[in-house]
Amino acid sequence: MILLTPIALIGGALFLLRKRWRRTNPEQRIRRVAIVLAGLLVVASPYLLFKAYELRFVLARVPSPLHVAWIEYRLEDSFGGIGLPGDNETGLVVYRLTEASARWARSMGPRLGEALPGGASRWHATPVDESGEHNTWHHYDSEADKHGHPATISEYLDKYGFSIPIEKGRDDEANRAIRAPGSFYSYGRGGSVTIVDPARGKVYFAYAG
Predict the structure, then answer these.
(1) Whole-prediction pTM
(2) Taking all residues of the chain, what is their mean pLDDT, rounded to a whole number?
(3) CB count, 10 Å around CB of 32?
């Protein structure tokens, strides 16, 4: 008795379809292609709609009037199973600004914070403030150790113990943005922080909540 493997079955089906395809006239071929494409569109529509909604949600994190050219890096994870409310979530997204937006941000200089949503009361100039109520960067350090080392984006993401494996080099890039003057940062909901880095034309969005 001969057992057919899945590959053999698929190969046989493709062979039969190819023979039948050659016997059909051009009009029938076009009709069948249209039917197949329509079927694929129907099947894929829910997924495409979800991805479009997801992309819109991710892009909405960038403060106006800045505009994104593309998402350069994105790593987000949910710890708890299926992403329900109450799960621990950690993420880092790096956005590359359009050249016009980056040029505008650089031209604003120290007034950039005033021009972003919420103004100067919400946006703070870097280096990040690691003292008092603003100390969300050295979560596990003792009071004596809080200023023993500079803030890092990895430590911020790991403040609840749910770290993610950031691509090598991405953390160094974000660290330069939060430690040196010239950038602006703002804390948001869900344990998030948004960092606008005019010098590199980027926006970093990190959260741990």
Answers:
(1) 0.71
(2) 78
(3) 14
